[in-house]
Amino acid sequence: MTDEEILTLFFQRDESAIEQTRLKYGAYCEKIAAQILKSRQDCEECLNEALLRVWNAIPPQRPGNFKLYLAAAARNLAFSYYRRLTAQKRGGAEVELALEELSECVPNPDTPEDTVLAKDLGETVNRFLGTLSARERSIFLRRYFFTESTREIAERYGLRESNVLVILSRTRKKLKFYLRQGGYSV
User: DSSP string covering 19-55, please?
Assistant: First the structure.
């Protein structure tokens, strides 16, 4: 079933839209959640919650890219679950490491005003990603969107882990410079 057909089912409020979405993208969304949560049960709960949120959001929203819309929903929920799960216990997880690396470039919104500015910041980061080579962009997204480990990224691209670390470091520096040029204090 195509994405457009699935979206039509959502707009018709046909509950089979959820099952069709699960069939087509369930494994994809669970993989995204698994990179963050590392627990099969938590990933399944996250997927169910993401599907419920998508059901409640469509209509009125009509995503241009349904797959990426689902990926963002699963990722954002997985981070929410992660924060809740680690509120009581702290560990050296890959997610914390990726967020710590990125925090040198992108400030964490602390105030309501910062939260409002976060949308503009997101658009600026998207424009920045458009300036990167396809490989740099892919490595950056795999690390900071999909929270893959540097080892996994190195294996995927046939690189040494040290090469991945250098690429990520240089890309973060470019991002920092780009944000400063755009008027962000980093």
Answer: HHHHHHHHHHHHHHHHHHH--HHHHHHHHHHHHHHHH
Dump pLDDT digits (tens) for 87-114: 555 544 566 666 666 655 555 555 445 5
Q: Whole-angstrom Cα distance, residue 124 to residue 186?
A: 13
Question: For 104, phi and psi rounded to 5 degrees?
Answer: -70, -20
Residue appearing with tokens 């999909």: 146
Angle between helix axes 66-86 and 16-37 (nearest 10 degrees) is 50
- φ and ψ at 66, to 5 degrees? -60, -40
Segments in 38-160 forming alpha helices (H): 40-57, 66-86, 94-103, 112-131, 134-144, 150-157
Residues 6+ apart with CB under 8 A from 73: 29, 50, 53, 54
Of all helices (H) and strands (E), which one includes residue 87?
Answer: none
* Contact call for residues 182 and 174 (beta carbons, < 8 A): no
The pTM of the full predicted model, rounded to 2 decimals, is 0.57
pLDDT in the model for residue 159: 94
Whether the link from the prior residue into 60 is cis, omega within 30° of 0, is: yes
Question: Residue 78 gets which letter from DSSP?
Answer: H
